[in-house]
Amino acid sequence: MRRCLAAAMAATIAASWSPGGVRTAGVSPAGAQRLAPGETVRDRPHPWRERHGIRLSGFTLHPSLTATTTVDDNIRARGTGGETDVVMEVRPALALRSRWPRHGVRARLAAQARRHAANPDQDRWRARLRLAGHLDPTPASRLDASARAVRRREPPGDPDSRAGATPARITELTASLSGDVRVNALRLRTGLTLGRKDVADARAAGGSVIDNDDRDRRSARGHARIGWDIAPGLTSYSKVIVARTVFPNDGAAGGLDRDATGMAVIGGTDFALTDRTFGTAFSGVRRQRFDAPGLGGKQGVVSGLSLTSTITPLITVKLQGDRTLELTTAGGAAALRATAARVSYDHELLRRLMVRANASHTQADYIGLGRRDHITGARLALTYGLNSRVHLKAHYRHDRRTSTNGATFARNRVGVGVELRY
């Protein structure tokens, strides 16, 4: 699979070059070069991707509808006895955005219904509502607020899943408020995010009930960041994060008490090597202090690097790597260290054909559990725009997890679809 993916990338790169320079695949050389500083291939305006919307006074409404059919060779993400099924999915969405010269609000309502041809017990639906707005009191200050509500089913293969016969229902609520002020070369950002997650009980294979109450959580996260513009294209910053997470039911029936207070101190830099190559790098320390005396404190280095480069007017490559310390409800663990690497590749192969390929690998070490997971993923997606309102889609996705506790699986999905948008 890796050889095939590498060959596909090499072929698309070779197709964009000619002995006389870059071949623009149906786009005039002058038009292909119009990339603003920091702009990528996907960011650049494309006539076939432009959405007209419905004008409603000072707002614009953008409706869309996507329908896909996918063949999934392991719908339950099991290590053995994987079942193949045909999955049909419909995703309607409405997006509303203000057109005011100053300040702004936006809202998005989206749903997803997934039906399995041979396994109706795996059918699921998802709904998401997001509201956001910003105020610009002065040209050098901004205030942002947002709220989000999500109702979904737990996906197969989730590390925290307890492998019920039917997916557990999850409800998530999030609200955030942040402010941004600039004074000459100095920029200060601060914010607060509140979250709530509730996991409903699920039915086990034998008909019994799986109690997921100990996975419910409440969280509060505050951050402050101060940055200095050292030179054009170079900003240095320091950031402090304080978080509190409470699992209101995790101590019931002798369960593990995972309530914790976390703090991270991070230093980093945002940089632009050229107008088309830019990124960010950071490093710091994070500590989790658990209320339960037996768990004590967990600490570790957190770091990351992200580099984006539009290597030709038609190709953008992004490399990412990071190391984090995260909370978990898997087994007898309370925290895990995750080391991840990701690469993505965007190519405007033809005037109306966009190709995206990405791959990732994550190593997750569960502290106190002796469990180590290696999670690998790869995806190839093609979008062809018949016009600005109809897009044809095709995708392939591979997911694999190997684990020392036996939670190992491999899963492949391939599908086609159509998106109607306005």
What does this structure look like?
With 422 residues, the chain is mainly β. The chain is 4% helix and 63% strand. The chain contains 2 helices and 23 strands. It has helices at 2-15, 29-32, and strands at 17-18, 21-22, 54-56, 59-72, 85-98, 104-116, 124-135, 141-153, 169-183, 186-199, 202-203, 209-210, 217-231, 234-246, 260-274, 277-290, 297-312, 315-327, 335-350, 353-366, 371-385, 390-403, 409-421. The strands form 3 sheets. It has an 18-stranded antiparallel barrel. Strands 1-2 form a two-stranded antiparallel sheet. Strand 9 and strand 10 form a beta hairpin. The chain is globular and about 60 Å long. The two termini are 37 Å apart.
Nearest-angstrom radius of gyration?
23 Å
Coarse shape? globular
Along the chain, the helix and strand elements come as HEEHEEEEEEEEEEEEEEEEEEEEE
Strand percentage, roughly? over 45%
Sequence stretches where pLDDT stays below 50 over 5 or more residues: 1-33
The average pLDDT score comes to: 87
Tell me roughly what share of residues is in helical segments. Answer: under 10%
Give the N-terminus to C-terminus distance in angstroms.
Answer: 37 Å
Oligomer: single chain
Count of β-strands? 23
Q: How many helices in DSSP terms?
A: 2
Q: What does the largest sheet look like? A: 18 strands, antiparallel, barrel
Structural class: mainly beta
